[in-house]
Amino acid sequence: MVSWLNSFPYLTPYEKPFYFILIALFFIPSIIYSLKGKRLTGYQAFLTLFFLWISFAGPNKTQGLALIGYLIWQVVVSKLYFNYRQQANQSGWFYLSVLLSIVPMFLIKLLPIFTQQAPLVNHGQPLFYFLGYSYLTFKSVQVIMETRDGQIKELKIKDYVNFLVFFPTISAGPIDRFRRFTTNYYQHPDHDTYVKLLGKGINYIFLGILYKFIIGYLLGSLLLPVIQNEALNGSMLFLGSLGYMYVYSFYLFFDFAGYSLFAVGVSYLLGYETPMNFNKPFIAQNIKDFWNRWHMSLSFWFRDYVYMRLMFTLIKKKVFKSRIVASNIGYFALFLIMGVWHGLTWYYIAYGLFHATAICVNDAWLRYKKKHKGQLPSNHWTKALAIFITFNTVCFSLLIFSGFFDLVIKQFFTI
Amino acid sequence: MTTETMVLNILEDITGAENLAAELNTDLFDEGILDSLASVQLLVELENQCGVAVPISEFDRSEWGTPQQIIDQVTQLQN
């Protein structure tokens, strides 16, 4: 027993082929039941505990404890706010609850800066850190906002925790919606729907393997280091950087889209229709279109819970005379928050500001087009040009995001 | 003024689109007529002119995507 425990396979989600073998084996009873159109609730709860144990116990025990602490904190905050909201609806308590809900994320991001070289408790990670903390924060904040809107009419602790710790998406999304997720939990898809989900789910998992483990690996682990070396140490700084930009962009897409396909595919096997995260982002015709196709669950989260809410307040209270000014300020706020969320590093913030600028220019162009309707050419060539410009703008933004310029600066401008 | 004309007037004012009465089942988001900003303006105007407060998390694009859907939602909320 002890030796078996010692050889227990601790893995982060989707890290190794063995994780998939475990999924294949342990999912069988659940799949058989789901084919009858029913959810094997108790067994799925066991699966959740089992797969969380694999990722958050053993060597990652401190993360597991941080996760438990996080859940207790969020349950208390959201329950208190929910109970309050049934009686009253003052803005102050709403903002306070949102703030309290974000506190753990702030601590995880800020503590390392203030404690600089102090011993990091969590295996080199900040105190309170656990894998996926920021994605769980998006879910927690969402529940408070929808509670305020009166959209969440019942908040059971069991449903809320279930939603947060749903293991297929715990490490990096996609960010689901509480009401959608809970509907799936209580209404298992019928036989015919589940058969389709099962087929799609398996298909997505294999496509994910192709994306992440084959194409992503070739681009990111084999090709990228070579190009980076060529750009920084060779004599081809410009061409090398250009190559790095394209290879990194495709690597990032295949790696993250591959992961997202796993998360969505595995959710389908359990009878949950987790939303997709990518929809052919590189054929977007403008920056707005790009954000409707790239890391969709995140950009829709920012759209619905940051941008639209901020705009609603700004427009309703007539803070700015011009709606265009208001809208542009909204974009800068949104992308600045998104940049900071990625990390408190200069190139993430620069990435955010770059996208804010790009989307404001994009909006100005769309307004110009609307004004001169019928006067501008619109055909296959202009469409192709639009895709080309968007693609290159996006790739350049991802080059900023990659931290490549940080390397360049360190390579050429330090002693 | 009926709810239908009121909603259509608001939509035309905000988006600059013309004669939406003839396109009640057009998907406004797919056609690029509505976007996030325009939907916020729509919600503000619905509150000001029709007296219906629609929370942003109620505004689901698949249920508020065509002029007809918007008219139906507003009618439902008014009752």
Automatic annotation (TrEMBL), chain A:
Belongs to the membrane-bound acyltransferase family. Its EC number is 2.3.1.-. One of its GO terms (molecular function) is acyltransferase activity. Keywords: Acyltransferase, Cell membrane, Membrane, Transferase, Transmembrane, Transmembrane helix. O-acyltransferase that catalyzes D-alanylation of both teichoic acid and lipoteichoic acid (LTA). D-alanylation of LTA plays an important role in modulating the properties of the cell wall in Gram-positive bacteria, influencing the net charge of the cell wall. Catalyzes D-alanylation from DltC carrier protein. The keyword Transmembrane helix applies. GO terms for biological process: lipoteichoic acid biosynthetic process. Pathway: Cell wall biogenesis; lipoteichoic acid biosynthesis. It comes from the Bacteria. PANTHER family: ACYLTRANSFERASE (PTHR13285), TEICHOIC ACID D-ALANYLTRANSFERASE (PTHR13285:SF23). The keyword Transmembrane helix applies. InterPro entries: Ac/AlaTfrase_AlgI/DltB, DltB, MB_O-acyltransferase, MBOAT_fam. This is Teichoic acid D-alanyltransferase. It is an enzyme of class 2 (transferase). It comes from Vagococcus xieshaowenii. It is a multi-pass membrane protein. Pfam families: MBOAT. It is found in: Cell membrane. The chain crosses the membrane at residues 17-35, 42-58, 64-82, 94-115, 127-145, 204-227, 247-270, 324-341, 347-365, 385-405. One of its GO terms (cellular component) is plasma membrane.
Automatic annotation (TrEMBL), chain B:
Coiled coil: none annotated. Pathway: Cell wall biogenesis; lipoteichoic acid biosynthesis. It is found in: Cytoplasm. Signal peptide: none annotated. Keywords: Cell wall biogenesis/degradation, Cytoplasm, Ligase, Phosphopantetheine, Phosphoprotein. The modification O-(pantetheine 4'-phosphoryl)serine is found at S36. PROSITE patterns: CARRIER. One of its GO terms (cellular component) is cytoplasm. Its main location: cytoplasm. 4'-phosphopantetheine is transferred from CoA to a specific serine of apo-DCP. Pfam families: PP-binding (PF00550). One of its GO terms (molecular function) is D-alanyl carrier activity. One of its GO terms (biological process) is lipoteichoic acid biosynthetic process. Residues 1-78 form the Carrier domain. HAMAP family: DltC. Carrier protein involved in the D-alanylation of lipoteichoic acid (LTA). The loading of thioester-linked D-alanine onto DltC is catalyzed by D-alanine--D-alanyl carrier protein ligase DltA. The DltC-carried D-alanyl group is further transferred to cell membrane phosphatidylglycerol (PG) by forming an ester bond, probably catalyzed by DltD. D-alanylation of LTA plays an important role in modulating the properties of the cell wall in Gram-positive bacteria, influencing the net charge of the cell wall. Belongs to the DltC family. This is D-alanyl carrier protein.
